[in-house]
């Protein structure tokens, strides 16, 4: 197996070429890639050399090493929003925008979904359709 032409982590084992997203595993039609936790608990792809046919799909699909030239000339945008209400943005991890958007959705008959940490690594999901008292 000549792996020198491949760039992705599954062949190089260079952690700076992998985000652990699993795109390579999902794209492999031959089921040659598994996602395994490293000693810190992060998932990284592991290659089964017996199943790999060196098609290069993992390199093409990888967001860390794939061919990015085709998107290099496309204009990209980034947006930020906040509120002028000091009481919203001082108590908010989202600079107050989630509170504003939630109030708007609820006032138009919608539901707002969210999560909160019950304990370490345990989340509780909930929704509201009326304005809770704790939202100013």
List keywords for this structure.
single chain, 136 residues, alpha+beta, two-stranded antiparallel sheet, 21% helix, 18% strand, elongated
Main pleated-sheet profile = 2 strands, antiparallel
Q: What is the percent of helical residues?
A: 10-25%
Distance between the termini: 63 Å
Strand order of the largest sheet: 1-2
How many structural domains are formed by the residues?
A: 2
Beta content: 15-25%
Q: What is the fold-level CATH name, i.e. the topology of the largest domain?
A: Alpha-Beta Plaits
Distinct helical segment count: 5
**CATH architecture heading of the largest domain:** 2-Layer Sandwich
What's the total number of strands? 4
Give the topology string: H per helix, E per strand: HHEEHHHEE
Poorly predicted residue ranges: none
Keywords: Iron, Iron-sulfur, Metal-binding
GO molecular function: iron-sulfur cluster binding; metal ion binding
Pfam family, one: Fer4_9
Protein name: 4Fe-4S binding protein
How would you portray this structure in words?
- With 136 residues, the chain is α+β, with helices and mostly antiparallel strands.
- It folds into 2 domains: 9-68, Alpha-Beta Plaits, CATH 3.30.70; 86-128, no CATH class.
- Helix content is 21%, strand content 18%.
- It is built from 5 helices and 4 strands.
- The protein has helices at 9-12, 23-27, 57-61, 86-89, 97-107, and strands at 33-37, 43-47, 112-119, 122-128.
- The strands form 2 sheets. It has a two-stranded antiparallel ribbon. A two-stranded antiparallel ribbon has the order 3-4.
- 15% of the residues are buried.
């Amino acid at each position: 197996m000549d792996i020198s032409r491949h760039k992705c982590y599954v062949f190089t084992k260079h952690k700076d070429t992998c985000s652990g997203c699993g795109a390579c595993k999902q794209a492999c039609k031959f089921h040659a890639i598994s996602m395994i936790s490293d000693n810190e608990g992060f998932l990284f792809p592991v290659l089964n050399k017996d199943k790999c046919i060196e098609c290069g799909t993992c390199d093409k699909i990888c967001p860390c090493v794939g061919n990015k030239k085709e998107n290099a000339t496309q204009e990209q945008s980034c947006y930020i929003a906040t509120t002028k209400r000091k009481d919203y943005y001082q108590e908010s991890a989202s600079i107050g925008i989630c509170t504003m958007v939630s109030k708007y959705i609820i006032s138009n008959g919608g539901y707002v979904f969210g999560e909160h940490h019950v304990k370490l690594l345990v989340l509780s999901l909930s929704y509201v359709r009326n304005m809770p008292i704790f939202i100013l």
